[in-house]
Amino acid sequence: MTKKSLITANLIAPCGMNCAICIGYLRDKNKCDGCRNSYENKPEACRKCIIIRCDNLKKTKSKFCSEKCEKFPCTRLKNLDKRYRTKYNMSMIENLKNIEKLGIRKFVKNEKIRWACLNCGGIICVHRGYCMSCGINK
Ligand SMILES: [Zn+2]
Question: Is the torsion defined by CA of 35, 97, 120, 6 positive or negative?
Fold first, then answer.
């Protein structure tokens, strides 16, 4: 895996997940283009996720759960967040709070630094815990 991927605002899902650091996005085969873009190559867990299709997001025309939803953070977001905090040491809710606080541009800028491989500049995969370009641990 040699190609470099980039973190962009369009790759930040409504739940706060950064799709650019997901194994589904970083893998070479059946590459997912992120929650907001592809459906076909979505990883199984993402296919089942209903946050992207949430009525409240549509109704309020929000880009992120944290924007206008009165239920934020709802139970399903909290469950997802808990799973990621426990298994992958990453929090969607914390991401959303940072997006609120800093704005999406600054958030993306910080994410680029946070997940950058110090060895090659590639992206550290949140699921694997290592750089998908050179294989080196964070
Ligand atoms: Zn690397």
Answer: positive
Q: How remote is the CA of residue 77 from the centroid of ligand 1, in Å?
A: 31
Bridge partners of residue 121, in order along the sequence: none
CA of 130 to the centre of ligand 1 (A): 8
How many angstroms is it from 23 CA to the middle of ligand 1?
15
The dihedral built from the CA positions of residue 74, 33, 137 and 99, taken in this order, carries a sign that is: negative
- Which residues have their alpha-adjacent CB atom under 5 A from ion ligand 1? 117, 119-120, 122, 131, 133-134
Residue 10 CA to ligand 1 center (angstroms) comes to 23
List Cα–Cα distances, 3 to 27, 43, 132, in angstroms: 11, 21, 9
Residue pLDDT, tens place only, 99-126: 999 999 999 999 999 999 999 999 999 9
What pLDDT is attached to residue 2? 42
Residue 15 CA to residue 67 CA, distance in Å, equals 11
Give the pTM: 0.92
